[in-house]
């Protein structure tokens, strides 16, 4: 039986019934719904709104329903939504006493509570995944503070750096993602129950008691806002979208790096696939899927933003569309974090290829210009001289490392020390400023990141 059927004289059209139902996706809220109902009923009994012995019977029965669903003895089915299912099951077990449960609340504040409870736990779950990924990146970086590689801008080789410097750039991104999820969890962690349909309730309820029972630090301040607010869902999916963007950027680099043209890394067979027609292929499909699923999570964000953009106060049925996009964003991000973290752990890093690649692309050109500046030449002039030197190298098939001193001196005043200056290791060691790639700077960054990790909970 529908909770609202008293007003109606005929049954809902079957197609409309199916169209209206949310049980197929909101059934995953059953733990949150039952826990919320237990807290609500406990408060009703404590406040004398319903007899305490009947409140205790309802609570005990709800605990039994939760246990039966968990162990598979009770199947969630044949209801409009999870709230209807739980209440119908309760009434089926204890009769009319079960109908007292809904005193002083509406499905509007009930679903807001369930969704907040679910996403609060989802944030904590995602934070664990992000923390594991940052830990993996930091551990890899700690082993490669002296593994030389080229840094890129515009996908062109730019300056010498280290693999640790490159990987810690992503660790910093994911640390910001963790901050976003902690902020999202803070916005989620406000208790809406007691707001009723839109103007609270005339029963003498104790909202703060319910909040305490459910581990919420605060209650919502306005009942209309409480039932119509989905900013917290947007916060969650927005944080998920940014994290997916970072995973996609990293995946793109791994796809490039694992190609035959680069060979910077080799993906494990565990995280690669082959071709049905080309026997030689080893494809980075996991990374490509990560990249592709980013668009899916972006779609979830656009979904909820579009749903909410024109809704008047207070609750509107449109808001039922908040759950599938939130659940999808959560499921997708959780899976991507797990696969990507494992993939990195099994990935082989070809340090010799990275080092050799650094000598190409004139990555020490800035050091050459700085060398001339040290000899009293204005930087703009030094920049022009080294630019001409690079043109000479390109025309004659040489690198800065293979030029003779005589050739260097065709463009300016150089001595033998230039060959030490252009060594990538020396260039890297000179960049000791905070945030730079020098091994000592990187060790400080890694240590600081390990401290940040302790605060991600």
How much helical structure, as a percent, in the residues?
55-70%
User: SSE string, helix = H, strand = E?
Assistant: HHHHHHEEHHHHEHHEHHHHHHH
How many individual β-strands? Answer: 4
The biggest beta sheet reads: 2 strands, antiparallel
- Inertia-based shape: elongated
Helix/strand structural class: mainly alpha
Summary tags:
457 residues, 61% helix, elongated, mainly alpha, 4% strand, two-stranded antiparallel ribbon, two-stranded antiparallel sheet
Write up this protein.
It is built from 19 helices and four strands. It has helices at 14-20, 23-26, 30-46, 52-70, 82-94, 107-143, 163-188, 207-213, 223-228, 231-257, 285-308, 322-346, 351-359, 365-373, 379-396, 405-408, 418-421, 424-430, 439-454; strands at 148-153, 156-162, 265-266, 348-349. The protein has a two-stranded antiparallel ribbon with strand order 1-2. The two termini are 43 Å apart.
């Amino acid at each position: 039986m529908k909770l609202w059927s008293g007003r109606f004289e005929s049954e809902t059209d079957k197609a409309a019934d199916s169209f209206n139902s949310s049980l197929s996706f909101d059934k995953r809220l059953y733990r949150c719904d039952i826990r919320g109902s237990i807290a609500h009923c406990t408060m009703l009994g404590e406040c004398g709104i319903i007899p305490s012995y009947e409140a205790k019977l309802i609570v005990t029965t709800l605990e039994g329903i939760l246990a039966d669903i968990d162990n598979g003895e009770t199947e969630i089915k044949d209801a409009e939504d999870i709230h209807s299912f739980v209440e119908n099951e309760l009434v089926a077990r204890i009769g009319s006493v079960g109908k007292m449960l809904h005193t002083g609340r509406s499905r509007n504040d009930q679903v807001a509570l369930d969704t907040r409870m679910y996403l609060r736990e989802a944030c904590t779950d995602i934070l664990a995944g992000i923390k594991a990924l940052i830990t993996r990146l930091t551990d890899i970086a700690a082993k490669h503070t002296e593994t030389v590689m080229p840094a890129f801008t515009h996908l062109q080789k730019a300056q010498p750096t280290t693999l640790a410097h490159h990987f810690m750039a992503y660790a910093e991104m994911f640390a910001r993602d963790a901050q976003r999820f902690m902020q999202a969890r803070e916005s989620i962690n406000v208790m809406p129950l007691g707001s009723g349909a839109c103007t609270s309730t005339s029963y003498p309820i104790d909202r703060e008691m319910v909040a305490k029972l459910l581990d919420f630090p605060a209650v919502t301040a306005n009942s209309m806002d409480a039932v119509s607010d989905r900013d917290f869902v947007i916060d969650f999916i927005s944080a998920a979208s940014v994290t997916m963007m970072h995973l996609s950027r990293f995946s793109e680099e791994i796809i490039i790096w694992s190609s035959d043209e680069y060979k910077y890394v080799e993906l494990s067979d565990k995280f690669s696939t082959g071709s049905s027609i080309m026997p030689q292929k080893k494809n980075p499909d996991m990374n490509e899927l990560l990249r592709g699923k980013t668009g899916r999570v972006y779609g979830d964000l656009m979904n909820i933003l579009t749903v909410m953009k024109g809704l008047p106060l207070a609750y509107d049925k449109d808001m039922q569309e908040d759950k599938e996009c939130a659940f999808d964003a959560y499921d997708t991000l959780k899976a991507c974090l797990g696969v990507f973290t494992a993939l990195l752990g099994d990935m082989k890093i070809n340090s010799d290829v990275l080092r050799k690649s650094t000598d190409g692309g004139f990555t020490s050109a800035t050091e050459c210009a700085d060398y001339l500046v040290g000899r009293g030449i204005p930087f703009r002039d030094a920049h022009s001289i080294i630019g001409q030197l690079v043109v000479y190298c390109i025309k004659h098939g040489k690198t800065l490392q293979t030029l003779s001193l005589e050739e260097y001196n065709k463009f300016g005043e150089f001595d033998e020390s230039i060959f030490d200056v252009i060594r990538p290791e020396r260039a890297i060691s000179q960049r000791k400023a905070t945030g730079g790639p020098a091994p000592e700077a990187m060790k400080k960054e890694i240590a600081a990141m390990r401290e940040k990790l302790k605060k991600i909970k």
